[in-house]
Design goal:
It comes from Podargus strigoides (Tawny frogmouth). By secondary structure, the chain is an all-alpha fold. About 60% of the residues lie in helices and about 0% in strands.
Length: about 240
């Protein structure tokens, strides 16, 4: 049964110009890496010819010369020791300007004029600023501020002396608190004071025992012939299992 099928499989032939075969070949050509780099490989086999005076070569050389540190400093190195027109460093404008800038920046030279002239100042003694400073010193001086008064001699029965003594007694702390000296050492019980009585009254108001009466303490006697009691008895007899 399968012998004929196996023989047919070997004899099947597909035409090479069918659309499916053409599409498969095109896809194989698109995904082939060898065909993708074939043009580049052919160009490499042909070689190349680049002259020394080509524009890319000359541009690369110019960029290299500009970026070179040696070429950058070559002109400066050639000009060293060949300055013409100035016999000394003082005659050179650039060197003179540099020396002037250095002298301005030097702190010692900057303060030299001040140190030379600070000990040669002469101020007249009657100048306004000196007089004002003396008056200010007199005002803020502690020695001149405290002038102790001399001892006055007054009669003890003068009215102003008597009035001053009364004023001193009123202002004296010892005299002010002399009426409290007899209270020292005296004991005092708080019982009966206003605060204690007030606390007791507040405790009585907040006392639960005095505020409420418990139900078990109330004497109560139920009435046996009241309607609700009679109805409860009838219900109990009706619900009794006996």
């Amino acid at each position: 049964y399968t012998e004929a099928w196996d023989a047919d499989k070997k004899s099947i032939h597909v035409m090479p110009d069918t659309p499916t075969i053409l599409l498969a070949k095109a896809n194989a050509a698109n995904v082939s890496h060898k065909l993708y780099v074939q043009a580049w490989e052919d160009a490499k086999k042909k070689g190349y010819d680049m002259r020394a005076d080509a524009i890319p070569i000359r541009s690369a050389k110019a960029s290299r010369d500009i970026a070179s540190d040696y070429k950058y400093k070559e002109t400066h190195e050639k000009q060293k020791g060949h300055y013409i027109g100035c016999r000394t460093a003082q005659e050179d404008p650039k060197l003179a300007w540099a020396a002037r800038a250095m002298s301005l920046q030097n702190d010692r030279i900057y303060r030299k004029a001040y140190h030379d002239s600070k000990a040669q100042i002469h101020i007249p003694v009657d100048a306004m600023s000196v007089q004002a400073a003396k008056e200010c010193q007199t005002l803020v001086s502690d020695v001149d501020y405290r002038h102790y008064l001399h001892q006055w001699t007054c009669l003890p029965d003068q009215n102003d002396v008597i009035h001053a003594r009364k004023a001193y007694d009123l202002q004296s702390d010892n005299v002010y608190k002399s009426d409290l000296e007899w209270l020292r050492g005296i004991g005092w019980l708080t019982e009966g004071s206003v605060d204690v009585v007030k606390a007791k009254k507040a405790q009585e108001i907040l006392n639960e025992r005095l505020y409420r009466t418990r139900p078990e303490e109330i004497k109560f006697t139920s009435i046996t012939d009241s309607p609700d009691v009679v109805q409860a008895k009838i219900n109990a007899l009706q619900l009794s299992d006996v």
